[in-house]
């Protein structure tokens, strides 16, 4: 299990690295007076602010449920991504405007060799740290860590573009390449900031994660039991590192309350064992079967069967998320 203190250490790593690298980049700008390097340094300031906010959001997400937050505090991580995306978007717009001015009035770039060396170093560090954060975040379902790591990837790409611009300036002695690189970075940063903001809104609005829903359906289908006649109205939501699942399961109407409870418990255990998250909260609503379900129910030695078993209806994304019981095609035609 991924303990909250370990997540905090990853967040602290990102913050410390961001502070050091932004200092190096501004030193590179003082040496070169390059518009592209300044653009990269300004974008890195966002790294420091967002890494600090991500660290705080990781701390909040690790807090247990309370009376005011019955589903926990995990959604703060989506707010962290939104805050990061909004800052990146704002910085991109400012950088774009500055780059246009620099393109219209280019100036000489000084000591580009030193600038390339310093920027190359920061790019390598950002790539390594970003890889570590994204890998840890995906493995342990922390969207804040993933977002922070992806931002470092973005920063490393910006840095490499700045290095390329300085290299072109060295070989051509034309400062236009410097301003052109800054203009490109401005557009690139705006696009990626929008994407992060869009992902944040999706999480805060409980937009369904199709891949996670398909995993839950696949787990239920793989461990399908005869007593689980039908699964429908399936909903899967993520709250940070926690997973919330609820669904309706049709079971034989003659089951006792204890038998129904045992079947529900088995469903919950199968799903919990499949997902490596901090907590899986699952609510299963049991529906009694009707005689219309006999044709796709293969409950052995059913004492109340009215129709012979015809075929099993596979559970898919298309039919399990609907709030209606499954019927064979022949039954749908007959009931219309």
TrEMBL record:
Membrane topology, from the record:
Multi-pass membrane protein
Identification of the protein by name: Cation diffusion facilitator family transporter
Span of the signal peptide: none
Q: Which GO terms describe its molecular function?
A: cadmium ion transmembrane transporter activity; ferrous iron transmembrane transporter activity; zinc efflux antiporter activity
Which residue range or ranges hold the Cation efflux protein transmembrane domain? 12-205
Any one GO CC term of this protein is: plasma membrane
User: What are the transmembrane regions?
Assistant: 12-32, 44-64, 76-96, 116-136, 152-171, 177-197
Which lineage is the organism of this entry classified under, starting from the top rank? Answer: Bacteria, Pseudomonadati, Bacteroidota, Cytophagia, Cytophagales
Q: Which family is it part of? A: Belongs to the cation diffusion facilitator (CDF) transporter (TC 2.A.4) family.
Query: Which keywords describe this protein according to UniProt?
Result: Membrane, Transmembrane, Transmembrane helix, Transport
Main location per UniProt? membrane
């Amino acid at each position: 299990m991924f303990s909250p203190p370990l997540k905090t250490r990853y967040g602290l790593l990102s913050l410390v690295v961001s502070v050091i690298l932004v200092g190096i980049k501004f030193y590179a700008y003082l040496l070169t007076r390059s518009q592209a390097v300044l653009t990269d340094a300004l974008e890195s300031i966002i790294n420091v602010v967002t890494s600090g906010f991500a660290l705080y959001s990781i701390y909040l997400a690790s807090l247990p449920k309370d009376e005011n937050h019955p589903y926990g505090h995990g959604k703060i991580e989506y707010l962290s991504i939104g805050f990061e995306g909004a800052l990146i978007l704002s910085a991109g717009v400012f950088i774009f405007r500055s780059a246009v001015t620099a393109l219209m009035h280019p100036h000489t770039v000084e000591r580009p060799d030193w600038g390339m060396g310093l920027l190359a170093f920061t790019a390598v560090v950002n790539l390594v740290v970003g890889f570590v954060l994204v890998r840890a975040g995906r493995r342990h379902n922390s969207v804040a860590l993933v977002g922070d790591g992806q931002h470092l990837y973005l920063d490393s790409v910006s840095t490499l573009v700045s290095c390329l611009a300085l290299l072109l300036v060295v070989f051509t002695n034309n400062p236009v390449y410097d301003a052109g690189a800054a203009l490109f970075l401005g557009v690139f940063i705006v696009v990626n900031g929008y994407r992060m903001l869009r992902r944040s809104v999706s999480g805060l609005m409980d937009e369904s994660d199709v891949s996670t829903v398909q995993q839950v359906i696949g787990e239920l289908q793989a461990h399908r039991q005869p007593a689980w006649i039908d699964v429908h109205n399936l909903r899967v939501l993520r709250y940070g590192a926690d997973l919330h699942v609820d669904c309706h399961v049709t079971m034989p109407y003659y089951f006792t309350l204890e038998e129904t409870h045992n079947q529900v418990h088995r469903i919950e255990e199968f799903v919990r064992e499949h997902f490596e998250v901090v907590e899986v909260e699952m609510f299963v609503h049991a529906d009694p079967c009707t005689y219309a379900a006999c044709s796709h129910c293969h409950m052995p030695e059913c004492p109340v069967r009215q129709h012979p078993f015809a075929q099993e209806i596979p559970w898919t994304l298309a039919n399990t998320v609907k709030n209606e019981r499954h019927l064979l095609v022949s039954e749908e035609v007959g009931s219309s």
